[in-house]
Hints:
2 copies of one chain form a homodimer.
Chain A: H1 3-8, H2 10-19, H3 21-31, E1 38-43, H4 46-62, E2 66-68, H5 72-75, E3 86-92, H6 98-109, E4 114-118, H7 124-128, E5 131-134, H8 147-164, H9 169-172, H10 179-187, H11 190-197, E6 205-210, H12 214-229, E7 232-237, H13 238-241, E8 254-258, H14 265-278, E9 282-287, H15 290-293, E10 298-301, H16 310-328
Parallel strand pairs in A: 1-2, 1-3, 3-4, 4-5, 6-7, 6-8, 8-9, 9-10
Helix pairs in contact in A: 2-8, 2-10, 3-8, 4-8, 4-12, 8-16, 10-16, 11-16, 12-16
Amino acid sequence: MTLRDEIHEQPEAIARLVDRAPAFGQMAARLRADELDHVLIAARGTSDHAAIYAQYLFGIHLGMPVGLATPSILSVYGAELRLARTLVIGISQSGASPDIVGVLEEGRRRGVPTVAITNDPSSALGSVADEVIDLAVGPERAVAATKTYTAELAALALLVAGVRDPADPLRADPALRDVPAAVAATLRTEAEVAAAAGELADRAACVVVGRGYEYATAREWALKLKELAHVVADPYSAADFRHGPVALVDEGFPVLAIAPSGRPAADMAALLARLRDELGASVLVLSDVAETRALGTSSVPLPALAEHLMPIASIVCGQLHALHTTLARNHDPDSPRHIAKVTRTA
Amino acid sequence: MTLRDEIHEQPEAIARLVDRAPAFGQMAARLRADELDHVLIAARGTSDHAAIYAQYLFGIHLGMPVGLATPSILSVYGAELRLARTLVIGISQSGASPDIVGVLEEGRRRGVPTVAITNDPSSALGSVADEVIDLAVGPERAVAATKTYTAELAALALLVAGVRDPADPLRADPALRDVPAAVAATLRTEAEVAAAAGELADRAACVVVGRGYEYATAREWALKLKELAHVVADPYSAADFRHGPVALVDEGFPVLAIAPSGRPAADMAALLARLRDELGASVLVLSDVAETRALGTSSVPLPALAEHLMPIASIVCGQLHALHTTLARNHDPDSPRHIAKVTRTA
């Protein structure tokens, strides 16, 4: 089972999660999530990018501010946290990292509801949580996480839909049914993505830009490029990028941009035009909008999908791009150097 | 007035803030901060790194979880946020960015206390907040923020000390008195820092690593290197660095590490030893501990200072390093390309 195989398993894995939608409604009812004001999420690495997605999803759909836990506050500094009216969520593929488990234990001590999102419900994280969302995507053997990431995003979207309509989450968010086909459509762009990936064959660094929901995609895409292709890929929201890092860009500097239709689209388009036409950057644009793709020096189409679910499809394009960049740089995507599958941080 | 001048103004600017300690206690009393459970901070760019520092400071000293606002949830997506028992803080040098102002306006609408930390109390941010902390460091003319950043950190530390002891903040945190001298001592290492900066003269990229309080320093140091020296500097907490980005490191790859004494010191030392001895990285270590400095291929001493205040001194070393890296790369630190002093994000 290779990384590429796992990337291609994603439509099925997500379809199985969407089929379990009623269970997410039942869980939301047990959590009494609508009586909670805040969310605190503990996660690291790829799962931390799912947490960033959750910041937008819970904030926009439920009005709940999401804090990303800094687990070392508890594990290294021994702090005790006020967690009144807070839903505590731990996200971890393996469920094995002690500091993530520690944040859920703190939630239990404070008597607030805790949810584990993991691919191993029998893990320490699964054992400590009130509610466990089993990603059930099958063993992830590649060191670089792919199918667990998109499953984490889908699980979060299903949980939010469950809070909005515990009786029928898919009534609250019918677009969830479109996700497996959209991911499958993205996989069919692999040849175009592979052609675009040649661009980074000889570059040491690049920038990845997204905004809103797609900031999570920028972060996760950059991580894949770092761990697999050894390109120093620096992720930014379009807003923060203007605050300094834009200084990195000179003639031909590679910028990767996720710019689907949606609320931040005009802002992203303005940035893309400036990057290419004023600063001379080499810009790869992912978008479902032909006019936006035309702002890039190269582009790959995204499928039609509701804006808040698009990150589940757009990152698949990023995964394929990182895979083919890795091959173009003559590295082995199935044996990334220096890193282990499970990282246990105290 | 050059960037270097503003870097050297910092001991005095911070001393003036510490002299205003009683006002921070009075402010904390008016806010009834001890009756609040959560903190939500809106900030961008350099000020966002002050917000990261606040996550550790409020979490460890007050047990208050700090969420970093994603302002576009309000400004782009039009969400309404539940903000019960939440202190809303906006941090902005100029106080002019509409999306940061928007988060404080949302706080006002919800009837929760709001604080502006800004160098321009007459700005939009200053006008909308219940309480205004005027950094009062004088005009910051250099495009790259330096003295406003350390003043923001000192203001946050004074505010937390004020919550702990409204009658006498310096009784709660007497180490605050040591900060100006510690920053002055750091400035005296400029020649050593300049010598170490030559390392990056011909490199496109590097990684900056810190943990706990010093994660904020890693983020801010990396931003200075990007905006001034055009080095793609990727900041990581030591914990997240092991989750993939360590794959970037090969023989001679430059790593910058902030590793002062304190709770994460043993974890940082283990990472530094691995980076240099197993992976062959070129590691510049900032530390107040001689044994930790010996783990680097080069090092610069930090002054003695309480762990939670050390970021106010350690970033000064990072600022000097970015300045001298910029000079070594023949760029002009006083005219960074493409960026404006005030960034207005809608």
